[in-house]
Amino acid sequence: YAHPSLRPNTMLTLPTLSPNLSIFWRDMSERFHLAISLLFLATAFALVPNSAVALDKQKITVSYLYNFAKNIEWPNQEAMTSFDIGVYGSYSPALLDELNVLKQRVKLRNLPITVTQVNRADSLGKYHLVYVEQASAKTISDIYDALEGKPVLLVTHAYNNKQLVMINLIPTNDDRLKFEVNKSNIINHGLTPLHE
After folding, report:
1. Are the C-beta atoms of 146 and 127 separated by less than 8 Å?
2. Rounded CA gap, 84 and 130, in Å?
3. What's this model's pTM, rounded to 2 decimal places?
4. Strands 113-118 and 129-132: what pairing?
5. pLDDT tens figures, 132-142
6. Is 189 buried (19+), middle (13-18) or exposed (0-12) by CB count in 10 A?
7. What are the tens digits of pLDDT across the range 146-190?
């Protein structure tokens, strides 16, 4: 003897929902899946972009620094054994990480790149490029005193006195980065901008 549901060619029928109730449950299921999907996406976009955008900004900054250095000629270039970058004062740790990646991957004019975090303005004269992420009027004044007559390219971030900058990175409202160049200050420090 076999149970009726186990007999071959026997069809098991389930109770059906009324058409209105079926549509209601399907709509609820679709709404639930949509809500969960939107919640997941909102969470993903809320968590990831801040770090990704910060990382992208640091990569862009490092790319700019490298390209600025490629387009400047130093008077003592023939005697250089490395290209030395000093990061002055407060900075983002992600920036230093990206600079360290740069120095491991590329050379500048066939020279190894060194990167050093610097806290004293009077020691900046030994670098070829100095990057200042957070500059005040006092900071820039101290830096210019330390760099007087030395072939050092100064790159600042969002510094508002255009007369005192050499190259200044400027964040835009749409999360981009542009730059301004004060060619006179670059030349006054014995550096030669290349045509590009």
Report:
1. no
2. 9
3. 0.71
4. unpaired
5. 998 888 889 99
6. buried
7. 999 899 999 999 998 888 899 999 998 888 889 999 999 999 999
